[in-house]
Design brief:
This protein is mainly beta.
C-alpha cells in the first residue's frame, strides 16, 4: 500500500487524504475565505465531531508546504471564520491521479490535480503538486464519490468531497437550477410573507436569498438564460399559466407567452436565447413538444415523430443547442428520448419504463444525468448518448438534477417526504380520516380486500420498499416480499385469498401472484410481456397491460404463462368489475373511461376523468378524484353512477394526497388513500473536477 505525497523542489512528503481534501476545497476558490463549517461538511460529511480535525489537517498542510502560521504564504487563518488559500492555483490537465485498489483491479482515473505555485524560493521553479505513489483506498473513498463517464470509458469529471446541503429551511425547496457558471442557484420555496411558492435566488457560497419577481401568483420551474443574466419561470395566476422573465437581480417583468394550466413540467431556454421549448396542451389528447418565440410567445415550426399515445414532457436543450432531450410517458412509466432541435425522428435513450424525476445534459453533451427509481430507491444515474449505457452515480436519495453548463457543480433535490395510509368510512355523516398501520416509514399503492378487512400496500417501513399486508381485526402488519425489485399496483382476487402485484426489475415488468395461505409466489406472465399493470380477469385468468411493443396493449391470459389474447391497443388502465363481469379501461390517448365491448367504435364513454390512471369501478359506480377551476386547491372524490350517469361529490379535502394510490371497497363503504404528511425536501450540491475530453 503506497502513500499520498506532496512533491516539490526535489522533496517528497507524505500527506493524509483528509488534508488533501481540505487543500482541494481551498484550491477551488483561491483567495476566498472558506468557512470552517463548510469545510467540515465537505471533507468530513458532517461526521467530524468538533473542529479539531480541521485544525490538524491545516497544520499538516502547513508542515508539508513549509508554511508559517504568523506569516503565512500558502494558507491564511481568518479568525472565527475559516481559511483561505494565498497561493495561485493552476489546474494541470497533464497530471492525473491514478489509484488501483488491488493489483489486478481495473484502473480508476480521476480528475487533474492542482499545482500550487508558491512565492518562496523553495517553491519557485517547480511548485508543489500532489500524486499517489500507488494504492490509496482512503483517497478513493474521499474523492471517488461519483464518476461521470464518457462513452469511451474515460472520466470527464469526478465529484469530490461529500455532498453539501445548500438549503435546510423548514418546508420544501424544489427544482434547483444553477447558473451556467455554477455560482448562483435558483429554486422554488414557500415565501412566508406572501404565503405563495416563489422563485428564490442565492449564491452557492452564500446563504442570503433574493426574490427577483413581483411575487404575483404561484411560481415554479425556474430556467436561466445562457448568460445567467435573466430568469424565466412559470406563473399560475387567476386560472392563467404564463411564462415570465425577469432580471436575475430583480427588475421589470415580461410575460413571454401562455402555457397550459394543470399538468405542466419543466421547460427550457435555447442557448441562443431565441426560443422556449415547452410541452404543449393545445387540444385534447396527449402533450407534445413545441417551440415558442421568446419575443412573441408565438409557435414556431417543430415537426417531429410524435406518438399520439404518449405524453412528451420536460424538454432540455443540449449545451450546443443542436438537440433536445425529453421525457416520454406518464409516471411511473417513463423513458428519455432525444430529437434534433430542428425536429425529425426521435431516438430512445433509455429502456427503463420507470419513474424519472428530472434530468440534465452533461456539459460536453456526451450524455444525460437523470434521477430514477428503476433499481428501487430514487437515485442519480448517467446514460451515455453514444450507446445508451446506464450507470449508477451512487447518489441517493436524489432527484431533479441540474448541472452547471460551464461550472463544476451539480445541484439536486434531497427528498425528505413521508406518506401515510389513511382510512375513511363513506357510509357515515362524520367522514374523518384515521391513520392505518402507523409506522415511521412511507406507504403507497394501497388496495382493499373485497370484504374490506385487509389492505395490501407497499411500504419502506422495513428499510426498503416491500409488499405488506395489514389485518384490520388485529391491527397487525406483515411483510409479504423480500426482494430488491420495485413493486407496483397490488390487486386482490375475487375471493380475497390471492393477490397479484407488478414487479419491475432491470426495466422489465412481471406479474407475480401470491397465495396468502401458503405465502407461495409465482410469476404468471410470459417473459416476452413487459408488464406495466396486471389484475385478475372477471371469470378466469389475468388482464395485463403490456409495454413490450411500441404502444401499450391490453391482453388477456387465461392461465399462468398461457398465450396472450389481444383485447385493445393504446390502453392506460384497466379494471374488472366482479359484480357485473364487465371490463373497464381508459385509453392512453385520452377519451375517458370505457366499457370493453365487441366493437371498439361502439363502446360507451362513462366519464372524462382528469387522470386516466386514477379511477375505480365499485358497486355500480365510477369513483375518481377531481378538482374544479373555482378552487384548484381542493380535491374532490366523485361518484358517477354507471346507470343514469348521476354525478355526486362524496368527499372533499385540501390535504396533499396521491390521486393514483387510492381504493374503494367492493361495497363502497370504505375508502383507503395515501396522504403526504411531510415534505422537507432540501437541495444538495456536488462539486466535480473536469477531466480530459
Amino acid at each position: 500500500m503506497g502513500a499520498l505525497r506532496v512533491h516539490g523542489d526535489g522533496e517528497s512528503q507524505r500527506i493524509t487524504p483528509k488534508a488533501i481534501g481540505v487543500l482541494l476545497e481551498l484550491a477551488r476558490e483561491p483567495g476566498v475565505t472558506r468557512m470552517r463549517e463548510e469545510l467540515l461538511q465537505r471533507v468530513w460529511a458532517g461526521r467530524a465531531g468538533d473542529g479539531d480535525v480541521l485544525t490538524q489537517a491545516v497544520k499538516e498542510l502547513r508542515r508539508v508546504f513549509g508554511d508559517d502560521l504568523t506569516t503565512p504564504r500558502f494558507i491564511e487563518t481568518v479568525p472565527r471564520l475559516g481559511y483561505r488559500l494565498l497561493a495561485s492555483v493552476e489546474w494541470d490537465d497533464s497530471l492525473l491521479l491514478t489509484a488501483t485498489a488491488e493489483r489486478d483491479a481495473p484502473e480508476v482515473t480521476f480528475a487533474p490535480l492542482p499545482q500550487v505555485a508558491g512565492a518562496t524560493p523553495r517553491a519557485a521553479g517547480t511548485g508543489y503538486w500532489l500524486v499517489a505513489a500507488c494504492a490509496a483506498l482512503a483517497l478513493v473513498a474521499l474523492v471517488a464519490v461519483v464518476h461521470l463517464w464518457r462513452g469511451d470509458g474515460t472520466a470527464t469529471a469526478a465529484v469530490t468531497g461529500a455532498p453539501l446541503l445548500l438549503t435546510a429551511e423548514p418546508g420544501a425547496e424544489s427544482t434547483p437550477r444553477l447558473t451556467p457558471d455554477g455560482s448562483r442557484l435558483a429554486y422554488v420555496a414557500l415565501d412566508p410573507d406572501s404565503g405563495r411558492q416563489r422563485v428564490q435566488v442565492r449564491g452557492v457560497n452564500a446563504s442570503t436569498t433574493l426574490l427577483p419577481s413581483e411575487g404575483i401568483g404561484e411560481e415554479s420551474w425556474p430556467v436561466w438564460s445562457a448568460d445567467g443574466a435573466q430568469l424565466a419561470f412559470v406563473r399560475h395566476e387567476e386560472r392563467r399559466c404564463s411564462i415570465v422573465t425577469v432580471d436575475a437581480l430583480g427588475g421589470v417583468e415580461r410575460v413571454r407567452g401562455r402555457c397550459a394550466p394543470g399538468m405542466f413540467e419543466s421547460f427550457d431556454w435555447s442557448p441562443d436565447g431565441r426560443s422556449f421549448a415547452i410541452a404543449s396542451f393545445d387540444g385534447p389528447g396527449t402533450a407534445r413538444l413545441a417551440l415558442r418565440s421568446v419575443e412573441g410567445g408565438e409557435a414556431q415550426p417543430f415537426d417531429y415523430a410524435f406518438d399520439t399515445a404518449e405524453h412528451d414532457l420536460a424538454p432540455h436543450y443540449s449545451p450546443d443547442g443542436r438537440r433536445i432531450a425529453f421525457r416520454r410517458g406518464l409516471s411511473p412509466y417513463c423513458d428519455l428520448y432525444v430529437v434534433a432541435a430542428t425536429g425529425g425522428e426521435v431516438r430512445r435513450l433509455t429502456h427503463l419504463a420507470a419513474l424519472i424525476r428530472g434530468f440534465d445534459w452533461m456539459p460536453d453533451g456526451s450524455g444525460l444525468v437523470f434521477a430514477s427509481n428503476h433499481a428501487g430507491s430514487q437515485a442519480l444515474y448517467r446514460v451515455d448518448l453514444a450507446d445508451g449505457r446506464v450507470s449508477a452515480l451512487g447518489v441517493t436519495p436524489a432527484q431533479m438534477p441540474d448541472i452547471a453548463a460551464r461550472g463544476d457543480a451539480l445541484a439536486y433535490e434531497v427528498p425528505r417526504t413521508r406518506s401515510i395510509m389513511q382510512g375513511l368510512l363513506l357510509d357515515t355523516q362524520e367522514r374523518g380520516t384515521s391513520e392505518l398501520a402507523p409506522s415511521t416509514g412511507s406507504d403507497s399503492y394501497a388496495a382493499l380486500s373485497p370484504d374490506g378487512s385487509r389492505i395490501v400496500f407497499v411500504s419502506d417501513r422495513g428499510g426498503r420498499p416491500q409488499l405488506w399486508l395489514y389485518e384490520a381485526a388485529t391491527r397487525q402488519s406483515n411483510v409479504l416480499t423480500h426482494d430488491d425489485a420495485l413493486f407496483l399496483y397490488p390487486q386482490w382476487s375475487i375471493d380475497g385469498r390471492r393477490l397479484v402485484v407488478t414487479r419491475r426489475r432491470d426495466g422489465h415488468g412481471q406479474l407475480v401472484e401470491i397465495d396468502l395461505d401458503s405465502q407461495a409466489q409465482q410469476v404468471v406472465s410470459d417473459p416476452t410481456i413487459d408488464v406495466r399493470f396486471g389484475t385478475y380477469a372477471p371469470r378466469a385468468g389475468y388482464l395485463l397491460i403490456d409495454r413490450h411493443t411500441r404502444t401499450p396493449r391490453l391482453l388477456h391470459v387465461a392461465q399462468p404463462h398461457a398465450p396472450a389474447r389481444l383485447l385493445r391497443e393504446r390502453v392506460a388502465a384497466v379494471e374488472a368489475d366482479a359484480a357485473s363481469g364487465r371490463i373497464y379501461y381508459s385509453r392512453a390517448d385520452g377519451g375517458g373511461v370505457r366499457v370493453l365491448g365487441e366493437d371498439e367504435a361502439q363502446e360507451p364513454v362513462l366519464a372524462l376523468v382528469g387522470n386516466r390512471f386514477a379511477w375505480h369501478v365499485r358497486n355500480g359506480a365510477l369513483w375518481y378524484f377531481d378538482s374544479v377551476e373555482e378552487n384548484p386547491d381542493e380535491i374532490l372524490l366523485r361518484r358517477r353512477a354507471l346507470a343514469g350517469g348521476m354525478d355526486e361529490i362524496i368527499w372533499r379535502t385540501r390535504d396533499a394526497i396521491d390521486h393514483r394510490s387510492f381504493d374503494v371497497s367492493a361495497d363502497a363503504r370504505r375508502l383507503v388513500l395515501i396522504r403526504i404528511t411531510r415534505n422537507d425536501t432540501d437541495i444538495g450540491l456536488l462539486r466535480f473536477l473536469r477531466g480530459q475530453h
